[in-house]
Design goal:
Blueprint (H helix, E strand, L loop, with lengths): L15 E3 L8 H4 L4 E3 L7 H12 L7 H9 L12 H23 L16 E2 L19 H10 L16 E6 L14 E5 L5 E10 L15 E3 L13 E6 L10 E3 L7 E9 L1 H4 L9 E2 L2
Parallel strand pairs: 8-9
Antiparallel strand pairs: 1-2, 3-4, 4-10, 5-8, 5-11, 6-7, 6-10
């Protein structure tokens, strides 16, 4: 007999992240060891997720044009979402195409404006075009939709303070997913990343490793796959620079500066500068590239 028809949407595997202690968060601290889901669906159940958001949020958080697009596939506030067999087939086919397109835009951007330095460096900006709304010529040229998809594939929230030049205020972000030679980062290998002396952050800086599939923090044996100059006992070099080490095991004597990775799994990092200073904006300070060391 023919196989039974597929369900309206395939079930999705839930990726979880354990809570870690966070000072001043009370109940959050007490829930250490519990898990919660920080990921979005990568298959057709994404549309169910979207419907639940639309149904519980105020309509004005989504512009009229986007509401119209969602309504065209049956997603409307106050209405059930029950696609018929034909629409369910379309959505099942569309979801992986959309997912692959978003991954391609972020991990292999065609626009050179995605690169911060553009001289062989692989560091990428979060805001291609430099506008937190992705407007082209202040909106005269429309909206850079690919740049918006690029950002929201790997991030969740955008604010003016993340994109504008605000010396000593707000934050700045940079992403890196390949080594100096342009090869994607491999969790089975060992790398070194040098941050020159005096990172231009009035408040603090951090480096966090992420899973390229879930875009949530990399799940490792460490409580958190990150280093933060305010909370971690980071060892500095004689010249004031910092060498961070990444790999499945720590190099001898480098535990304080080591971020664990997972063999057989890719990863990428975000560098965050809180209270970014002028050397970041004029690029007189710039982070090094990933060096493969084993």
């Amino acid at each position: 007999p023919p196989p039974p028809p597929p369900p309206p949407f395939s079930s999705r595997r839930r990726h979880t992240r354990s809570l870690v202690p966070s000072r001043g968060l009370g109940d959050v601290y007490k829930r250490q060891g519990h898990s919660f889901d920080t990921t979005h669906a990568n298959d057709a159940t994404f549309y169910e997720e979207m419907h639940s958001v639309i149904d519980r949020e105020h309509l004005d958080v989504i512009d009229l044009e986007t509401r119209d697009l969602l309504a065209s596939i049956g997603i409307r506030k106050g209405h059930t979402f029950e696609p018929d067999e034909h629409m369910a087939d379309i959505l099942r086919d569309a979801a992986p195409v959309g997912y692959a397109t978003a991954r391609r835009l972020f991990f292999q951007p065609a626009d050179p404006a995605a690169l911060i330095y553009g001289d062989g460096s692989h560091w990428k900006t979060g805001f291609v075009g430099g506008d937190y709304q992705w407007l082209i010529d202040e909106g005269q040229g429309g909206r850079y939709l690919d740049a918006r998809t690029y950002f929201f594939y790997m991030a969740t929230v955008n604010t003016p303070a993340m994109a504008l030049k605000m010396v000593g205020v707000g934050s700045q972000y940079a992403a890196l997913d390949v080594d100096r030679n342009g090869d994607y980062l491999d969790g089975s290998k060992h790398y070194r990343l040098n941050l020159p002396a005096n990172p231009p952050a009035k408040d603090f800086w951090s480096v966090v490793a992420y899973d390229p599939q879930t875009r949530s923090e990399l799940q490792t044996g460490q409580p958190s796959p990150s280093k933060n100059n305010k909370k971690d006992p980071i060892v500095t070099n004689a010249d004031g620079s910092v060498d961070l080490y990444f790999g499945p095991t720590a190099p001898a004597g480098q535990d304080e500066n080591w971020i664990q990775t997972v063999p057989g799994k890719g990863w990428f990092i975000l560098l965050r500068l809180y209270g970014p200073l002028e050397p970041w904006f004029d690029q007189t300070w710039r982070p090094g590239e990933f060096e493969l060391i084993g």
